[in-house]
Design goal:
The strands form six sheets. The protein has a four-stranded mixed sheet with strand order 21-22-1-23. Strands 2-14-16-15 form a four-stranded mixed sheet, covered by helices on one side. Strands 4-5-3-13 form a four-stranded mixed sheet, covered by helices on one side. By secondary structure, the protein is of the alpha+beta class. The protein starts with a strand and ends with a strand. Helix 10 links the parallel strand 17 and strand 18. The protein folds into two domains: about 210 residues, Alpha-beta prism (UDP-n-acetylglucosamine1-carboxyvinyl-transferase, Chain); about 210 residues, Enolpyruvate transferase domain (UDP-n-acetylglucosamine1-carboxyvinyl-transferase, Chain, Alpha-beta prism), CATH 3.65.10.10. Helix 5 runs parallel beside helix 6 and helix 8 runs parallel beside helix 10. The structure holds uridine-diphosphate-N-acetylglucosamine. The site of uridine-diphosphate-N-acetylglucosamine (UD1) has 22 residues, from helix 1, helix 5 and helix 6. Uridine-diphosphate-N-acetylglucosamine binds next to helix 1, helix 5 and helix 6.
Length: about 425
């Protein structure tokens, strides 16, 4: 049985939506909770497939995890485990976040190669290089990775080869309980990095400079528990905004934080949308006029245009008049969704890491297949703008990052439902 989204597109979107907490904040923070000696409460945690996988890992490591309404309550493990369970660890890339916390708690950690969306090669060399410079010994055996330390990890002065989001988070978690001070240079500056640092600081860590290119950490001997509300999900915001661009209408997003989208908002404005902030921490997007191509859009690390937003914005601009070229500088294979865009009537062409689109075109319903999370969301956005019925197969990918994409768009007037069907 495969999961599908069934979409009858062509309706404008109207209404209000509250943004959930960001998946890319929640997942590293759940792993960081392993470092805490006391209870951790995470507020408004969305019910995502990757959150389920994280909870399975946390429970296998001995933590007690309970969901109360939207919140997750975590109690530390009396005797911490050190081997990650295979299925949930292989199911997502974010299992890599458990390396540093489990190493600190148990002195060793064993996990299979992390999975996640296939967006091209996704090595973890920077995570491992940083940890080994802090004193971890690394061993690969039959597809499993094992790290050991004979003493507490040591603070270091370390320059990342490139500003990887995940490696910055791994090394922040490692530095928080390391012996002595750590300086991390050329780090990622995405808002989720600051959120992880805010959570760790709420637990008693001493981290300064998160959100800037150099982070300084004073290692502590222990961390206590904390309550924390992760930042709102800027990729869900981009998805809703892109759908408004594609379908027309007017949607207000609430609980957005300050300026969640930066360059994504600029691109949508160039495409003919109007965006403003009717109340603080809100974002209203409307499109009444014709959708225009925007020329070249290049993704980049923060504060650049987010790579995760690339397929959803492409889905929203698929029918636009004129040319749009979206080039992803972060991942090699971001646009597996191109084939589905063409089946929906888009005039698209993949050139290396770029997706070129030309219009105007009339989109019409089709059966398409998601191959990854954001590409699947991009196909759903394009299907919402297409006349007639579409089926997006592979919707289980989409559920990794959107708790209920269908329900969210239904509340905005779309005709879309999630379901299952037998695969031939
Ligand atoms: C995180 C996000 C993901 C987003 C990406 C870029 C989470 C859970 N996921 O992924 O949604 O698309 O940031 O904003 O937060 N790289 C290496 N060696 C490493 C690590 C990374 O070569 O050790 C490369 C990757 O292959 C990729 C680039 O660096 O080409 C960026 O990856 P990175 O920033 O680490 O992304 P993730 O943390 O995997």
């Amino acid at each position: 049985m495969g999961e599908i989204l069934r979409v009858r597109g062509g309706r404008p979107l109207e209404g209000t939506v509250r943004l959930p907490s960001a998946k890319n904040s929640v997942l590293p923070i759940l792993a960081a909770a392993v470092l805490a000696d006391g209870p951790v409460v995470l507020r408004d945690v969305p019910d995502l497939a990757d959150v389920h996988a994280s909870v399975a890992i946390l429970r296998a490591l001995g933590l007690t995890v309970r969901r109360r309404g939207g919140d997750l309550h975590l109690l530390p493990a009396p005797v911490p485990g050190w081997q990650l369970p295979e299925a949930p660890a292989r199911a997502m890339r974010s299992s890599v976040f458990y390396l540093a916390p489990v190493l600190h708690r148990a002195g060793c950690v064993r996990m299979p190669m992390p999975g996640g969306c296939r967006l091209g090669p996704r090595p973890i060399d920077i995570h491992l290089d940083g940890l080994s410079r802090m004193g971890a010994q690394t061993l690969w055996e039959d597809g499993w990775l094992e790290l050991r330390t004979s003493a507490r990890l040591q603070g270091i002065d370390y320059t990342l080869r490139l500003p990887s989001v995940g490696a910055t988070e791994t090394l922040l978690m490692a530095a928080a309980l390391a012996k002595g001070d750590t300086v991390l240079r050329n780090v990622a500056r995405e808002p989720e990095i600051r959120d992880l640092a805010d959570f760790l600081n709420a637990c008693g860590a001493r981290i300064e400079g998160a959100g800037q290119p150099v982070i300084r950490v004073q290692g502590k001997t222990s961390l206590h528990g904390a309550r924390h509300r992760p930042i709102p999900d800027r990729i869900v915001a981009a998805t809703v905004a892109a759908a408004v661009a594609g379908c027309g209408g007017c949607v207000t997003m609430l609980g957005t934080g300050e300026d969640p989208l930066g360059p994504v908002a600029d691109v949508l404005e160039r495409a003919g949308c109007h965006t403003d902030h009717p109340v603080p921490e809100s974002w209203r997007v409307q499109r009444q006029d014709r959708l225009q191509g925007v020329g070249l859009v290049r993704t980049g690390v923060w504060p650049g245009f987010s790579t995760d937003a690339a397929p959803v914005v492409a889905g929203g601009l698929l029918a636009a008049q004129g040319d749009t070229v979206v080039e992803d500088t972060v991942f090699e294979d971001r646009f597996a969704c191109a084939e589905g865009f063409a089946q929906l009537g888009g005039q698209v062409c993949r050139r290396g890491r770029a997706l070129a689109m030309h219009g105007p075109v009339q989109l019409s319903g089709a059966r398409v297949r998601a191959a990854d999370l954001r590409g699947g969301a991009g196909l759903a956005v394009a299907a919402l703008a297409a006349a007639g019925e579409s089926v997006v197969e592979g919707a289980e990918y989409v559920r990794r990052g959107y708790a209920d994409l269908a329900g969210m768009f239904r509340a905005l007037g779309a005709d879309v439902c999630a379901g299952r069907e037998n695969r031939a």
